[in-house]
Amino acid sequence: MRRAERLFQIVQVIGASQWTTAQALAERLQVSERTIYRDVDHLSASGVPLYSQAGKGYALLEGYQLPPLMFSVEEWQALLTGLSMAQGWAGQRQAEALRAVQEKLAMAVPSHLRALASPVSAPALPERRMLGALLDPLQRAIRERSKVRVHYRDVQEQFSKRVIWPLGLYFWGHCWTLVGWCELRKAFRHFRVDRIVILQTLGDRYPHLPGHTLADYEAAMDARCTDPQSTDPQTAVEEKTPS
Predict the structure, then answer these.
(1) I need a surface site. Which of 74, 131, 179, 181 has the fewest CB within 10 A?
(2) How many angstroms separate the CA atoms of 95 and 21, rounded?
(3) What is the DSSP string of 19-85?
(4) Exposed, middle or buried by CB within 10 Å (0-12, 13-18, 19+), for 234?
(5) How far is CA 22 from CA 2, 17, 51, in A?
């Protein structure tokens, strides 16, 4: 890592936390503590408002604005590519937020990077735009812990109505799945979003109960991977994970 990049990383790391020790900085940046001491002295001499306290480490003056973001050409184009792909598969509101992020980043980088375009395009196809109409309310329901009623068409073309506690959305490269607690089955279930025929957001908020959270679901899935013979009914799923 070049020194200029390391100096920038030091300011970012210290600014992101209340206190940071030289040892923690050295371990993160894979340099010696002596190098960190020299770098901090250089930053202070350059006008960066760093201060230290025995036993706590370094801190950055509150309100200090970091200098403009610096990316290599490869890093900047990789970032643009990721934002473009995410916009193509996101809901409308999230796609708009991603475009705003891209515009803010563009204002914070040097002009020679701002002029570069992403080498990869991921336009939103019509079917993806239709999917976005479901992703926006699902994301809001997850954020607000609102129950939803779904009319669902499964892989056998069977239709059912479920009241779900939406917990999370997973993207598999070609489709989204909704993970939630199903009131009908009294267990975790996941559903392909493109098989949801009707989605209704209900007025009820679901409670935060032990054994019913996204963390519980992920722990159960980890256990199933470790022990494929696991038959815990609360961790069974009706839809196989997309392949």
Answers:
(1) 74
(2) 38
(3) -B-HHHHHHHHTS-HHHHHHHHHHHHHTT--EEEETTTEEEE-TTPPPPPP---HHHHHHHHHHHHH
(4) middle
(5) 18, 13, 12
pLDDT tens string 35-54: 999 999 998 888 889 989 88
Q: Rounded to whole angstroms, how far apart are CA atoms 184 and 11? A: 52
CATH, range 3-60: 1.10.10.10
Hey, what CATH topology would domain 127-235 get? SH3 type barrels. (2.30.30)
Rounded Cα–Cα distance for residues 195 and 107 (Å): 40
Element (H, E) at 149: strand 146-153
Which positions ≥6 away from 221 have C-beta within 8 Å? 235
Residue 127: pLDDT band by 50, 70, 90 thresholds?
Answer: low
As a whole number of angstroms, the distance between CA 135 and CA 132 comes to: 5
Ramachandran angles phi, psi of 164, nearest 5° = -120, 145
What does the alpha-carbon distance between residue 105 and residue 76 come to, in Å, rounded to a whole number? 10
Q: What is the mean pLDDT of residues 203-209?
A: 93
Integer Cα distance of 237 and 234 in angstroms:
8
Strand partners, 191: 178
Q: How many CB atoms lie within 10 A of CB 95?
A: 21
